[in-house]
């Protein structure tokens, strides 16, 4: 392969300036060409994926047989997996106090909502035949997707810069299986003496067993081998926001109540991080008071990282079906005519986005 080209059957890496000098990097799968966007479907989603802590966009493209790219290509659905701030070529955002509304996850959600998603929509939505965006988040990426969805749903019609149609969540919940040490969290600094972010580095052997249930045979050898290459250090600041009882666990319910698009939420029955009981799942989904519907349940025979399990391809297919349903519903029910979103009069050209040189390998 020529230098700088993506691996065969892999998603294509990108780096884009989103404005104000901020960069976002990630992976993309665009099965349709801009000039070939006539669809038999009434609606097409642009699926935007957000990875969890200590992973990157490659989480959604771990192996050629366990990649969201396959469903993207088969169903002609455009997909973008973002490297969240502080991961790979996406720079860290400014530091926060992790108190009140000034927390890591809320700051990241604002960045997505105000800069990244509007740019991605203008550049890759209508030009590729998409009619709306569906956010898909795993773990801490799911928390960011939830907050971002709340921001989108509470914007006035005149303020909306992208059409959100649905939200997919997994790898997160109400109660963690392992008891957290609150005192240790309070004393753990997110930044070093020079103000640089501190990263948590996992021992990959135990991490693979914890995330993939590899010792229980619940993940294929392909993703077990790939797990080391798609893993990376995780930001301490984001885990402190996500886990500390005074932060995300305190404020997420009020935000969930504001989301007025369909939700799909599943946990794996053998998730070693989260309590996947029916009671806990019901408690979590009950927070989405404004959603027109919430699809939820338990996937049997998988660990925390459903996408890397034997069920990975099935899960991606389910996500694509849900996302397409959300997109079709949005077009059918409101047709962009009720003032909730006004599409551009003319399609934006892909040539208006200048992509930077990106790394082929994000390991």
From TrEMBL:
| The AB hydrolase-1 domain, residue ranges | 47-308
The yes or no answer to whether the keyword Hydrolase is present is yes
For whether the record's keyword set contains Hydrolase, the answer is: yes
The UniProt keywords, alphabetically, are: Hydrolase
Q: Which GO terms describe its molecular function?
A: hydrolase activity
This protein is called Alpha/beta hydrolase-1
Taxonomic source organism = Septoria linicola
């Amino acid at each position: 392969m020529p230098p700088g080209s993506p691996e065969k059957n892999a998603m294509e890496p990108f780096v884009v300036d989103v404005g104000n000098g901020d960069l976002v990097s990630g992976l993309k799968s665009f099965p349709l060409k801009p000039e070939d966007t006539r669809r038999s479907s009434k609606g097409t989603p642009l699926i935007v994926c957000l990875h969890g802590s200590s992973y990157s966009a490659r989480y959604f493209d771990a192996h050629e047989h366990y990649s969201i790219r396959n469903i993207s290509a088969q169903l002609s659905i455009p997909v973008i997996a973002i490297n969240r701030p502080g991961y790979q070529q996406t720079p860290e955002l400014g530091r926060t106090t992790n108190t009140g509304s000034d927390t890591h996850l809320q700051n990241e959600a604002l960045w997505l909502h105000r800069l990244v998603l509007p740019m991605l929509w203008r550049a890759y939505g209508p030009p590729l035949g998409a009619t709306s965006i569906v956010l898909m988040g795993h773990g801490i990426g799911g928390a960011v997707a939830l907050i971002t969805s709340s921001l989108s749903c509470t914007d006035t019609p005149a303020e909306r810069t992208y059409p959100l149609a649905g939200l997919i969540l997994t790898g997160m919940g109400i109660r963690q299986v392992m008891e957290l040490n609150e005192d240790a969290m309070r004393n753990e600094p997110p930044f070093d003496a020079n103000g640089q972010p501190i990263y948590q580095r996992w021992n990959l052997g135990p991490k693979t067993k914890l995330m993939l249930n590899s010792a229980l045979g619940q993940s294929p050898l392909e993703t077990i081998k790939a797990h080391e290459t798609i893993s990376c250090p995780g930001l301490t600041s984001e885990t402190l926001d996500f886990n500390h009882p005074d932060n995300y666990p305190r404020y997420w319910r009020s935000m969930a109540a504001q989301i007025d698009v369909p939700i799909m939420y599943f946990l794996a029955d053998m998730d070693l991080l989260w309590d996947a009981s029916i009671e806990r799942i019901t408690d979590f989904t009950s927070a989405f008071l404004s959603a027109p519907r919430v699809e939820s349940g338990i996937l049997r025979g998988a660990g925390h990282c459903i996408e890397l399990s034997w069920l990975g391809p099935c899960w991606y297919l389910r996500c694509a079906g849900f996302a397409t349903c959300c997109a079709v519903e949005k077009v059918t029910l409101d047709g962009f005519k009720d003032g909730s979103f006004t599409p551009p009069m003319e399609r934006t050209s892909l040539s208006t986005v200048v992509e930077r040189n990106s790394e082929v390998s994000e390991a």
